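Q: I'm building a small set of examples for a reading group on sequence design. Run inverse folding on the following structure and report the sequence directly after it, with nothing in between.
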């Protein structure tokens, strides 16, 4: 074989090696890109689920806030009547009303 053919064969082998490296690296990068996209998709799903749960949380808090407002109003009334009670029977009745309001 002549030197020219040997040089061409060696050059073809070197180019082939570089091409295979390029293909391998490209495939690895594509795989990693798909993995990242899949992970972000999962993040989007979790964020969407979280956003979907917020209206339920708001409604629950509204209901509890209304109930607490009623309870605190009853406690304030019972305390006021306890402080303004003059006779022992009024104090007993006001204390029972306060106990009932606090027990809720």
């Amino acid at each position: 074989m002549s030197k020219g053919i040997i040089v061409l064969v060696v050059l073809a082998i070197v180019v082939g090696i570089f091409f295979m490296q390029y293909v391998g690296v490209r495939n690895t990068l594509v795989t990693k890109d798909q993995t990242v996209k899949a992970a972000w998709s999962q993040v989007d799903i979790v964020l969407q689920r979280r956003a979907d749960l917020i209206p339920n949380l708001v409604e629950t808090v509204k209901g509890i806030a209304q109930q607490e407002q009623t309870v605190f109003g009853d406690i304030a009334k019972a305390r006021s009547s306890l402080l303004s009670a003059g006779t022992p029977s009024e104090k007993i009745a006001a204390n029972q009303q306060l106990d009932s309001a606090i027990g809720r």
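DSSP finds two helices and no strands in the chain.
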